[in-house]
Amino acid sequence: MSALSPPSPAPRIGVWFVGARGSVATTATVGALALRAGLGSPDGCVAELPEVAAARLPGLAELITGGHELGHGSLPKRAEELAAGGVFPAQLARALSAELAEADSRIRPGAGPGGETQRAAARRIADDITAFRDRHGLDRVVVVDVSSTEPPAPDHPALADLDALERALDAGESPLPASSLYAYAAYRAGCPVVAFTPSPGPRPPALVQLAAREGLPWAGSDGKTGETLLKSALAPMFASRALTIRSWTSVNLLGGGDGRTLADPAAAESKLRTKGQGLEAILGRPVDGPMHIDYVADLGDWKTAWDHVSFEGFLGTRMTLQFTWSGCDSALAAPLVLDLARLTARAAEAGETGPLAALGFFFKDPAGDGVAHDLGTQWRALTEWCAALGERA
Amino acid sequence: MSALSPPSPAPRIGVWFVGARGSVATTATVGALALRAGLGSPDGCVAELPEVAAARLPGLAELITGGHELGHGSLPKRAEELAAGGVFPAQLARALSAELAEADSRIRPGAGPGGETQRAAARRIADDITAFRDRHGLDRVVVVDVSSTEPPAPDHPALADLDALERALDAGESPLPASSLYAYAAYRAGCPVVAFTPSPGPRPPALVQLAAREGLPWAGSDGKTGETLLKSALAPMFASRALTIRSWTSVNLLGGGDGRTLADPAAAESKLRTKGQGLEAILGRPVDGPMHIDYVADLGDWKTAWDHVSFEGFLGTRMTLQFTWSGCDSALAAPLVLDLARLTARAAEAGETGPLAALGFFFKDPAGDGVAHDLGTQWRALTEWCAALGERA
Amino acid sequence: MSALSPPSPAPRIGVWFVGARGSVATTATVGALALRAGLGSPDGCVAELPEVAAARLPGLAELITGGHELGHGSLPKRAEELAAGGVFPAQLARALSAELAEADSRIRPGAGPGGETQRAAARRIADDITAFRDRHGLDRVVVVDVSSTEPPAPDHPALADLDALERALDAGESPLPASSLYAYAAYRAGCPVVAFTPSPGPRPPALVQLAAREGLPWAGSDGKTGETLLKSALAPMFASRALTIRSWTSVNLLGGGDGRTLADPAAAESKLRTKGQGLEAILGRPVDGPMHIDYVADLGDWKTAWDHVSFEGFLGTRMTLQFTWSGCDSALAAPLVLDLARLTARAAEAGETGPLAALGFFFKDPAGDGVAHDLGTQWRALTEWCAALGERA
Amino acid sequence: MSALSPPSPAPRIGVWFVGARGSVATTATVGALALRAGLGSPDGCVAELPEVAAARLPGLAELITGGHELGHGSLPKRAEELAAGGVFPAQLARALSAELAEADSRIRPGAGPGGETQRAAARRIADDITAFRDRHGLDRVVVVDVSSTEPPAPDHPALADLDALERALDAGESPLPASSLYAYAAYRAGCPVVAFTPSPGPRPPALVQLAAREGLPWAGSDGKTGETLLKSALAPMFASRALTIRSWTSVNLLGGGDGRTLADPAAAESKLRTKGQGLEAILGRPVDGPMHIDYVADLGDWKTAWDHVSFEGFLGTRMTLQFTWSGCDSALAAPLVLDLARLTARAAEAGETGPLAALGFFFKDPAGDGVAHDLGTQWRALTEWCAALGERA
Predict the structure, then answer these.
(1) Do C87 and D312 touch (CB under 8 A)?
(2) Are B314 and B165 members of one domain?
(3) Per UniProt, what is one Pfam family of this protein (chains A, B, C, D) (predicted)?
(4) How far is D304 from chain C (nearest CA, A)?
(5) Which of the four, A321, B127, C62, C241, has the lowest number of CB atoms within 10 Å?
(6) Is there a contact between C288 and A296 if contact means CB atoms under 8 Å apart?
(7) Residues B124, B211: one domain?
(8) Domain residues for D290?
(9) Which residues of D are less than 8 Å from B294 in CB distance?
(10) pLDDT in tens for each of the 393 residues of chain A?
(11) Measured between CA atoms, how close is C84 to chain B, in angstroms?
C-alpha cells in the first residue's frame, strides 16, 4: 500500500428493523444516534465490554438504521412519547429530532395481511433491503426482528422443507407467519437475521435450510432482558448448591405495546413457552408454579416482575427467595439489539453460517444444538467465541 | 492380594468441631446421623452432586463427629431446641436422641480466657484431637471452626511469623485469637483446618507458615450461605450485561446466637468486612450503599435479608432489583460444613497443602491467590478440581 | 333469689361446623380445646379485646363443637397433619388427642350429592343439630359454614322466594346449593348462621326471608383473613390522602385444600368476586389490575400474597407500594370463627334478627345495608355495637 | 348589601416558607402556580376532598408564596433540577419559569449562625413577613417550616418560659434553635405557624405560651408522608385483629438533601424519635426491631422504605408482612404543605388558638393533648373538625 493510499475504511453496517417504529427499534435508533453524537454512555451494551469487543466488531458509530413498519407515526414523535414515559431523557429526543427524521425516511411500509401474495411481498421486502444497502454503500445489512409477538407457528407442511415452501409460494399460497416472511426475504437479499422476539421468524425448518443454502448466519430467539435473565442467573445457584426448588412462581406486569399484544392469550403462549423452558433446561426437570404475563396499562414502557421461589434445604427445611425486578423493557432490549447486529455482522464477515449458538447469552430460546441456558456458561461461550473471532480475518 | 482378603475398608474420617454444640455443629451432627440412619435426604449437600462426588470423597456415613465447646448443655437438648425453632423436624431429634447423646460424649471442654497459658491450651486441644483419632481408629480428622464470630485479629507481631509465634508461646504470652489457637493446635495434631466463620483462625501469616511446614491443607473463610451467595450469583449478571450498579443496599435480620454475637459492633465488623468485599471484587470497583446486620431476637434461627439494587442501563435509564431471602442459617450452613470436611479430607489424602483455592465456592472470603468471587467461576474451579482429584490416588 | 340458690350458670353455646374436619374447623376445635385447657394464648381472637368483650360474650371455655362433614378421617389425625404443616405446635395435637377424639364423635355425615332429596337431607341435618343441642343441654347452637368454596349460586327461581322454595322442596326438587341447604336446615332447627366462605349459604332471598320469619340473626360472608384485610386497611389510606390508585395487582399463592378447590375456575370465581368488590367500594370506582388465585401445592396450609399498587400523587408523579403477606390461612381464620360464633350467639340472645351488619369487620362481602368495607370504619361499627349489646340483657 | 356592591373578595392568603428554595417548598410553589394556571390536577391535596373542603378553605389559587432561605440558587433553577429528578414533569418547570422567577423575588435571606443577635434576627424576620403581607394586601400569612431537620432542642432554661426567653433575648443571648427563632418571629408578626419538620420549632414551652398569648393557632410536627403513614394505617389493623407484633423492622433509603442531612446522626435522632413513637402509641407498648435511615445518594429526591413485620397469631403461629414503598418525598410533602397552610389559615380566621389537634392526621408527632396516631381515627377527627368549621363564620 503506497503512502498516499487512504486508510482502509471501516466496514459500514446497516441494521434493518422489522417493526422499525416500535419501542425497541426507536430506542435502539435513538441510542445509536446519541452515541454517535457523543450524547450518552453505552451502558447496557455488552459489545463494549473488552471480552466481547475482542471480536473486532463494527463500531457503534458505523451503524445506519432502516426498516419496515406497518404502523403510522414517525420516529421523532415516537421518541418523544418514549421520553415522556421515562425510557430516555427528553432532551435526547429533542436534540436528535433532525437525525431521527432522517432515519424515519429510511423506513418502508411493511407487509400486512391481504393484498399482495407472499411471493410478491417477499420480493418487495428484499428489494427494499437491497436498495437500502446500495444507496448507502453498506458492506452488510443485518435484519433484526423487533416487531410484536406472534402466536406460535401453525404446522403448515410447507414450513418443513424449503422446496415445499418455494412451491407453495409459487402457487400463490401464504404459508409463512409474518415474521418468517421477513426472514425469508432477508435471506433472499443475502442478509443474516436476528430474531429478537419469540415469533417463529427463522425457526421453521424450511428457513433453517435456506440460511444454510445461502451460507448465512442467524441468531435467536426472544431477547432475554428481564425476569428470565434473572432466572438464568439464579437457577444455577440453587442447582450448584444442591437446593431443591419446590415451586417457582413468576408474575410479569407489562404496560406498553408489548403488554397489550401479550394480553392476547395466543401471543402470550409464545412468550410463556420460551420463558418456561429455561428453568427446566437448567434444573433438568419441570418445576411447579404459575407463570403470568399481565397487561397493566399504567406501567407504560416499564415492567415489574415478581418471582417467588420456594426451595428445600438440608433435612427438608423450607425456605424462600422472592425478588421484584422493575425495569424498562425497551431500555434493556435496545442495547442488546445493537450488540446482536454488530456480532452477527462480524460473524457473517468471518464466514459463519447457520444458528449462532455462541449468542445464546442474549436469548430466552437460544438457537443451536445443546446451547446452555445458564447465564454464566453462556457468557463463557460468548467470550470464547469472541476471542476466537478476534484472531480471524 | 489374595482372593480371600477382605475389601479395603473405606477411610474413616473424623470431623472435629470448634463450637461443637453451636447451631451449625448441632445441625451438621443431626444431619450426619440422620443420613446414616436413612432418615433424611441430603438436600443442600454439594458433595452429593455428581460433578463434586467425582473427587471420590469419603461417604457421609463414614463421618464421625466430636469437638470442643465452651458452653454447657448437650447435643440432644440443643437438637430439641433447634427442632422447635423449625431448623429440622422434631421427630428427627427424638429418633436420634441416643446417637446424639453418644456424639455429645465425644465433646471436650474448649479453651476459654484465663487459667492455662496458650501453650498449655494448645497442647491440651491437640491431645484431645489425637485421642479422638486414636480411640476411633480414624484415618484423618478435619478440624472445622463453627464457633461464634470474633472481632478482626489485632496486629500482634507474633502473628506475622511462625518462629516469633513459637517464642511468644514459649514465653507464656497469649498472642493468638481463640480461633487461631484452635487452628494452631489442629496443625500440631496433624489435622487440616476449615474456617467456616470470619474469625482469624488460619489466616495469620504465622499459621499459614505452620500449615505449609506441616504439609497440611486448609480452607476458608466464612461460609457463604445466604445474602452473599445471592450477590455472587447476581453481580456477575449485571457485570456481563454492562449494567452499571449505582447502589447496593443490604439489610440482614438475624435472630439466634449468631445474631446476638453480631449485635456486638466489633464482631459485626469481621462479618461486614467479608460480606462487602465480594461485590467489589466482582465489579472491580467499590459500590455505594449501606450494609446492616441487625439482631432481631424473634427470628430465632432464621434470617431475612433484603437487598435493594439500583442500576443504570442504556442512555442512563435507572432501574431496580430487590430481593428478600428468608432462610434458616443453620440448615444452609450444616451441609456445607459436611461437604468441606469431606473435600478437605480428600485433599489431604491426595497430598494437597496450603489454602485450597478450589473451595472458594463455599466462602465469602476465599483463601488462596486470585480466587474469583463470582459463583459460576467458583463452581467451575471446584468441579474441575474435583474431576482432577478423581483421577488421583 | 335466696342466698342458697346456686349462681346462674353461664350459657352453654354449641358451635356446629359445616365442614367439621376441614383445616379451619380443625384448627378452631384445637384452639377452643387448647384455650380451655390453658395450653395457649388467644392471639388473633378479636372477642378477647376489651372493646369487643364489652358485649358480654359467652366464654371461650363454654363452647362445645360438633358438625357435619362429608370427608373421612378424624380430628386427631387432621390435627397431626396440620401441626406437621406448621399451623400449630405438634405437642398441642398430641396433648389434646383424647379431647379431639371426643369432639370427632360429635361429627355427623354431611349431605352429599345424590341419594336423599333435599327435603329429606334438610330434615336429617336439622335433626342432627337438634340432637346435639339436646344431648349437651345447650342454650344455643350457632351453625358456622367453613366448608370448601362453591361456585356462585345459579339463578334458580325457587331461591328468590321462600314459598317457592318450600314448594320446590316438597316437589322433590334440589334447588339449593349445598351451603344454602345447611343454612336452611339451621334455621329450621332454630339456629343462627355464620357464612365464613364465599359460597351462597344464607344469601339467596328465600333464605333471607326464612331467617327473618324465624327471628334469627345471621352473619357473612367470606372471612377477611389476609390480602383483602390488608386492602381494607390500605385503600382508605390512599383515599384519605387523595392519592389516585392507577392499578392494584393482586397475586395469591395458596396450597392446601382451599388452594386446590380454587384451582377450579368456577369456585375461584366466587372468591375473586368477593375479593374484588372491597377495593371498588372503598375507592368509589373500579380499579385496573389483574387478580390471581393460584394453587401452589408445596405451600401447604400457608399463603403468600403479593400486591403491587401503582398510584399517582401531586402533579402526576407516579409511585408504588408493594407488599408480601405470608400467613397461615387456618391460623388466621380459626380465631375469627370462634369470635363469630360467640358474637352471633350473643346477638341471638339479645334478640337481634337478620343480617348482622356490625360484623362486617370480619368479612370480604359483608351482609347488611350500606356496610362499609374500610377496616377502621368497620371496627368502629363493631365496637359501638358491642358496647350497646353490653348494656342489654 | 345593595345589589350594586361587588362580591366580597376571597381572602388572600400568604404562605411564607422557612427553607423557601428547598425541595418541598419549591415543589409546593411549582404546584400552587401550576394549579392556578390549570396545568395539573391536585392529586395528593387532602383539602380538595369534599370532607375537608367542607371547612370552607381559601382556594389554592388564592395562595401567594414567599419565604426565607439561607441557600443561594433560584426557584426556576431548583425547579429544573427537581424536574430532572422526576419530581414533576420538565415542561411544568419550563412553562412556569417566569412565575417562578417572580416567586423567587419574594424570598428573603434567612438567619444563619453568627452576625446579628437573635433579638435582631427575629425582628428582621418579622419585618420581612409583615412587609410581604402589606405589599400584597394579604388577609393572613401562614409561616411553614420546611427547612432541613435540626438536632433535638437542647435543654436551655430560657425555652421553658416566655418571660425567661424574652430576658435572654434582651440580654443578647441565643437560646433559640433556628426553627424556633422563625416560630418566635412569626408569632411576633401575628402569623400562625406550621412545623412540617421534626425540628423543635414551636414546641418549646416558651413558644407554646407565646402562641397562646398572641391568640394564634399552630400545627405540627413532622409531616407524615411515607413509611410512617403506612405504619399508622397498618398497625391498627394488627391491633384490632388481636395479632401480636413481635418485631417491626424499618429501613429508609433516602437520597437528596434530606437524606444528606439525616446522614448526620444528630439530625437523624430527631427523625427517628418522631418515627418511632407512633407505633408505640398505637400498640400501647414498645416494639422490638431496628430502624434505619440511610443516605443513598443515587436515589435523588426519591425514597425507598422496606418494612418487615413479624407477628404472632392463633396458638403462637408466626407470620410476616413486608412492604416496599417507593415514593417521591417532595411530591408527597408538597400538597400536604399547601393543605396545612389553607387549614391553618382557616383555623386562624375562625379564631382557633394553640395546637391544632385536629391536624394530627398530617404529622408523625402530632401536637395537642391525647392526639391519636391511628390514621383512621385521625381522619375522623380531621373531617369532624372541618365539618364544624364549615358551620362557623
Answers:
(1) no
(2) no
(3) Inos-1-P_synth
(4) 10
(5) B127
(6) yes
(7) yes
(8) 227-328
(9) 249, 290
(10) 344 444 445 569 999 999 999 999 999 999 999 999 999 888 999 999 999 999 999 999 889 999 999 988 999 999 999 998 889 998 899 999 999 999 999 999 998 777 889 999 999 999 999 999 999 999 999 999 999 988 776 789 999 999 999 999 999 999 999 999 999 999 999 999 999 999 999 999 999 999 999 999 999 999 999 899 999 999 999 999 999 999 999 999 998 766 677 777 777 777 777 777 889 999 999 999 999 999 999 898 999 999 999 999 999 999 999 999 999 999 999 999 999 999 999 999 999 999 999 999 999 999 998 899 999 999 999 999 999 999 986
(11) 9
Cβ neighbour number for residue B80 with a 10 Å cutoff? 16
- On chain A, the residues whose CB falls within 8 A of the CB of B334 are 314
The residue type of A112 is G
Are C297 and A288 inside 8 Å of each other by CB? yes
Residue C250 covered by a domain: yes
* Judgement on whether residues C92 and C192 belong to the same structural domain of the protein: yes
> Are residues D194 and D236 both part of a single domain?
no
Domain end (from D328, D350, D376): D328
Distance from CA of B255 to the nearest CA of A (A): 16
The domain that holds B138 is classified in CATH as 3.40.50.720
Chain C residues whose beta carbon lies within 8 Å of the beta carbon of residue A322: 306, 324
Asked if B22 and B149 sit in the same domain, the reply is yes
Comparing CB atoms, the residue among C43, C236, C324 nearest residue D376 is: C236
Closest Cα in chain D, distance from residue A275 (Å)? 26
Is there a domain that residue C2 lies in?
A: no
From A92, A230, A234, residue closest to B315, measured CB to CB: A92
Minimal Cβ distance to B247: which of D247, D288, D296: D296
* Chain B residues within an 8 Å CB radius of D292: 251, 290, 292
A171 within some domain: yes
Same domain for A321 and A336, yes or no, is no
Tell me the backbone φ, ψ of residue D143, rounded to 5 degrees. Answer: -95, 125
- DSSP conformational letter for B86: T
Q: Which of B328, B352, B374 is the last residue of a domain?
A: B328
Give the domain CATH number at D324.
3.30.360.10
Decide if C46 and D244 are in contact by the 8 Å CB cutoff: no
Element containing residue C101 per DSSP (H, E):
helix C97-104
Residues 6+ apart with CB under 8 A from D334: C314, D24, D27, D28, D30, D31, D44
- B:C CB pairs within 8 Å: 3
User: For the packed helices C227-240 and C265-283, what is the interaxial angle rounded to 10 degrees?
Assistant: 20
Q: Find chains touching chain C: ≥3 CB pairs under 8 Å.
A: A, B, D
**φ and ψ at residue C150, rounded to 5 degrees:** -95, 165
Tally the residues of chain A: 393
Residues B163 and B297 grouped into a single domain: no
Tell me: do B306 and B376 sit in the same domain: no
Cβ-Cβ contacts under 8 Å for B253 (sequence gap 6 or more): B259, B294, B296, B299, B303, B304, B305, D249, D290, D308
**Contact assignment for D294 to B297 by CB distance below 8 Å:** no
> Is D360 in contact with D370 (CB distance < 8 Å)?
no
Q: Which chains touch A (3 or more CB pairs under 8 A)?
A: B, C, D
Q: A-D interface: how many C-beta pairs under 8 angstroms?
A: 3
- Rounded alpha-carbon distances, angstroms, from residue C213 to C184, C190, C192, C210: 12, 11, 12, 5
**Calpha distance D348→D140 (Å, rounded):** 9
Q: Determine, yes or no, domain membership for A2.
A: no
Of A46, A242, A328, the CB nearest to B45: A242
Q: Which residues of chain A have a CB within 8 Å of the CB of B317?
A: 86-88, 328, 331
ipTM: 0.94
Number of domains in chain B: 2
Q: Sign of the C-alpha dihedral, residues B223, B225, B227, B228? A: positive
CA–CA gap between residue C204 and residue C207 (Å, rounded): 6
